[in-house]
Design goal:
single chain, 3 helices, 231 residues, 2 domains, alpha+beta, Immunoglobulin-like
């Protein structure tokens, strides 16, 4: 011990202290000065990042795009539906729904005078009359000049057409139908020069046939029912 004490001098002590200060200072400086330029490429891996350390505030705007998202990882709950546009096919469907109009046709009456309008759609008007001793009479008129109108009955192949149908004219929409033995079922087509089309699918029951809807408040000798689509 005496020999060691003799060898420890003031210079030895001061030099040792200086070494410790340099080493400690270098470590502190290194900790405070290491930035992105001092990091080797790909040196920081996922396992080196503390769980939940990367928050939204730490992510640069627009840094995460579609290529950075795992396929199939996003579900409906992750998507704000209000930010989505309408797909092209849905646009076409919406357009069709807005432009097409559908009208129901339902007419009942007993024999006697009195004409009723049973359809007014797309420039086409159809009236019905339950004529005494005869049949259901249907007449069509147009509000648009130079229209086209025709009808066809599949059960007896009756057909009639007016290729230049104008306001003020009347088209017999059931001309030539057989009467009394069965219900007439037929199609009527109305077309305007501007592109509006009305298709009518209809059936009627004449007064010589059994009453329709017997035993109900709707019981009647004449009946016309169907629908029309305009677009």
């Amino acid at each position: 011990m005496k020999q060691i004490r003799k060898r420890i001098t003031y210079a030895n002590v001061m030099s040792s202290i200086a070494v410790f200060m340099v080493l400690g200072g270098a470590t502190a400086i290194a900790a405070s000065k290491i930035g992105t330029n001092q990091l080797k490429a790909n040196a920081v891996t996922a396992s080196k990042i503390k769980k939940n350390a990367v928050t939204t505030a730490k992510i640069k705007n627009n840094a995460v795009n579609g290529s950075k998202v795992k396929d199939g990882s996003l579900t409906g709950a992750d998507v704000d539906l209000g930010t989505l546009g309408t797909v092209p096919s849905a646009n076409r469907a919406n357009s069709a729904a807005k432009s097409d109009q559908v009208a129901k046709i339902f007419y009942t009456a007993n024999e006697g005078p009195g004409t009723q309008t049973i359809l007014s759609l797309g420039g086409l008007t159809i009236t019905a009359l339950c004529a005494e001793g005869g049949s259901v009479q249907l007449e069509a008129t147009t509000s648009v000049a130079h229209a086209w109108i025709d009808f066809f009955t599949p059960q007896d192949h009756d057909y009639d057409v007016d290729e230049d149908f104008n306001p003020g004219e009347t088209f017999d929409a059931d001309d030539g139908h057989d009467q009394g033995t069965f219900t007439d079922i037929y199609s009527l087509s109305y077309n305007q020069p501007g592109g509006t089309n009305v298709t009518v699918e209809i059936r009627d029951v004449d007064p010589e046939v059994e009453p329709v809807f017997p035993g109900t408040s709707a019981q009647a000798e004449c009946f016309v029912g169907g629908f029309a689509i305009a677009g």
